[in-house]
Amino acid sequence: MNAPSPIDRIAASHAGLAPALGGGPAWTRRRARSLDALVARGLPDRRDENWKYLDHAHLAEYRFDPAARAAVGAPELAPRLLPIGDARRVVLVDGRLDGRLSDFSGTEGLEVLDLGQLLERDPQAALALLRAPGEDADDRYALLADAFAACGAVIRVAPGATLREPVCLVHVSTAAAEATHQARVVIEIGAGAKLTLVEHFLALGSEATLGNLAAELAVGPEAEVVHVRLHEHGPAAALVETWVTRLAAGARYDQHLLVLGGRLVRSNLRLSLDGRAAACRLAGLFMADGERQADLHTQVAHHGAATVTQQDFRGIAAGRGRGAFNGRIVMHPTARGANASQNSRNLLLSPLAEINARPQLEIHVDDVQCRHGATTGTLDEAQLFYLRSRGLDPATARALLTFAFCQDIIGRLPLPELRAVAESLVVGALPDRDLIRGLV
Questions:
Q1: What integer pLDDT is reported at residue 179 of this predicted model?
Q2: How wide is the angle at C-alpha 139 spanned by C-alphas 136 and 144, nearest 5°?
Q3: What number of helices (H) and strands (E) belong to the chain?
Q4: Over 60: is that where the pLDDT of 1 sits?
């Protein structure tokens, strides 16, 4: 007898769990619609153009049973938190907001809501807050999160507020048992507000857990958001995330993505520049060594006139590691005067490593500027020769060039504490880590 497919396992898990998810009849109907849509469309596979590089067979091995509620103590978590002294913290444990571990009260202009409590207290308000996943082919894991929606967080920054302290959104996987944890996150930034958001994914164990995050970010007119995203998952863990981000007129959004852990990470970003002169800058670095895989997909839609996008992504693969960057920029007819650039540079450190890069442009209007490019290769022989001619041995020369390749992304991080942490994690993941530690 054939083993049940992932969709069959998801449907069976949902049938057993649905009565306990809360939210009343309206949410029961919505979850059922999301599950029906997912069953009808199926999970992505290699036939889907934007998913063809992902190891779907490995992803299907994970259990889709929900993670049981786990208790985490502050002493257990504290050593793993990023050393940002004045940061406000919003902590999700297996997708659930943990008020005991969080620290955001008393911050003027900042409001944090527990989605689980909101579902119980005011289901209609929760319905209005959470975007229902649409017909987009890349929304299928968002449909999965919606079908099991029962927890998460809402973060709001009031119009005109400037938060002097960064807000850390910490996703903790307890890995107490092999399971899947679903989470929904909604972030709303009021007009003219300013926020530095640091998102940190970490694991307190080494079990084969699967995380599924569906998140939404709305940046109001003339607001500014700096968003640092650090993936530091357990060695057997997998994560699929779906971010939908919208920028109003004059809004600015800078994202720094670092994928430095986990067995498999798939990151989807769908970003829409809706208003005139909205601007975004996306920078990213992924590292895939051993048997690990990192798969990044960005889709940026320019709707507003004079909008600007800058993208710079770097990837490193070693051992049998596999990486992918699939970036698509769409210039809509209303985007006159828009300017977009996209660059993907990738480094292979072993013969069996693999990285696939697919920059794409789709232009429906004249009077725009668009540039894209991608390179994948080994370390530059001319640069290696130059360093060796200055007295460095081959291993040290390779180590320095590899670290410099990463440092171009790390050096742009907004906080010195983050740069120090990122440097330590990157150096620890490189083949010549001992050499590099002695030099930097």
A1: 79
A2: 145
A3: 11, 19
A4: no
Over the stretch 137-193, which tens digit does the pLDDT of each residue have?
A: 778 999 999 999 889 999 999 999 999 999 999 999 986 667 788 999 999 999 999
Q: Does residue 18 fall inside a structural domain?
A: yes
In angstroms, rounded to a whole number, what is the distance separating the alpha carbons of residues 387 and 115? 55
Length in residues, the chain: 440
Q: What is the DSSP letter of 115?
A: H
Alpha-carbon span 114 to 105, nearest angstrom: 13
Coil, strand or helix: which one is 309? strand
Domain boundary at 229, 258, 274, which?
274
Structural domains counted in the chain: 2
**For residue 228, what are the β-bridge partners?**
198, 256
- H or E element in which residue 394 lies: helix 394-410
Does residue 347 form part of some domain? Answer: no
Q: Are 334 and 366 a contacting pair, CB within 8 Å?
A: no
Domain hosting 404: range is 379-440
Confirm whether 369 is domain-assigned.
no
pTM, whole model, 2 decimals? 0.94
Mean pLDDT of 75-102: 92
Both 111 and 254 in a single domain? yes
